[in-house]
Amino acid sequence: MARDPNAIDFWRGLALITIFINHIPGNVFESFTYSQYGTSDAAELFVFLAGWSIGIAIRGRSGALEPAGRTLLRLLSRMVEVYRAQIVITALALAMLAAAALLLDNPLLLEWHNAGPVFTDPVQTTLGWVTLLHQLGFFNILPLYVVLLGLAPLFVLAARLSRPLALAASLALYLAALVWEINLPSWPGEGHWFFNPLCWQLLLVLGFLAHEWRRESESFQVWRRRLRPLGIAVVVIGAVLAWFHIRPDPLLVPEPRLLFTFDKSYQPPARLIHFIGVLLTFQGAFEWIYARLPWLGRQLAALGRNSLAVFSVGSICSLAAQLVRFWTGGGFAVDVLVVGSGLFVLAFTAWFVEWRSRSPRSPASA
């Protein structure tokens, strides 16, 4: 039986819809998403909530921590599950680009989103995308999540000894990656991962620790309420920066330059501070929204409860939408059609996953 709507599932559902819309560049609805009004976006929310969810998952109904070995197996099992999803959606995306190139007689489509090497150098690049070292554009969040789940046991188990120790280790790794510009390499092509796991792991750890402190620390609850005005100020500043397109020139900032840029790949302090401001500002908003718009709350929570399936289908839908817009030339009516159809498919996916989990299986099909 599906759990009741809650804030975590609700915000994760909102993040999934936002990511789906933002992965259709140029559509009219993109202007209304969170990324247009600040220096962070839904990717930060998605990763932070993943950390928070780990905090929930590793505790039983009584609130007691499960054995360390079980936590390790749980996280590694989820990592394999996410990896499997990434391989499937990458294969489908490549097939879609190949089919579109044939149907539209346009070989340039084979170059979309870094897919070109797969078709021109299939031997090395197949090894590359299977090992996650070669990633398609817009299909690079799940590889980040795979690595984060691989790193998570280190921080989660360290937090059992000392939460400040876990936070200090995460911060040290984050700062080292920023100062020395350390990132995982791409292969066989040159370059690095779009989402640097060594930096983005900090958000996962913050999400996990925030869950733990929220459970047990009264002062944490008090301070997050006291800091809300500061969070609102940060959100306003972020909106002004985004509205007037104010961002530092990477060639003019001092060293270490990544501390001062807005580079999404490295999750610099400007993005991190803005995201924390968003958290402080909208704390408690779910209860207010759900009381007035329960249908919306239930729909978004359903998406969030089935986040991996919805995200995977959303990635495929967003690529399909891009191809339709390319084929038709786009326009308002096309955007309404592709975004509306995509949202329907996401909602259906969440419903189908839960319907399938509720349906009893016959012994013969086991």
Give your account of this protein's structure.
The protein has 366 residues and is mainly alpha-helical. The chain contains 15 helices and no strands. Helix 2 packs across helix 8, helix 6 packs across helix 7 and helix 6 packs across helix 8. The relative contact order is 0.16.
Broad shape: globular
Q: Main sheet?
A: none
Give the overall average pLDDT: 94
Question: Which structural class do you get from the secondary structure elements?
Answer: mainly alpha
Helix content: 55-70%
Number of strands: 0
What is the C-alpha radius of gyration, as a whole number of Å? 21 Å
State the order of secondary-structure elements, H for helix, E for strand: HHHHHHHHHHHHHHH
| Distance from first to last alpha carbon | 20 Å
User: Any low-confidence stretches, pLDDT <50, length ≥5?
Assistant: none
Helix count equals 15
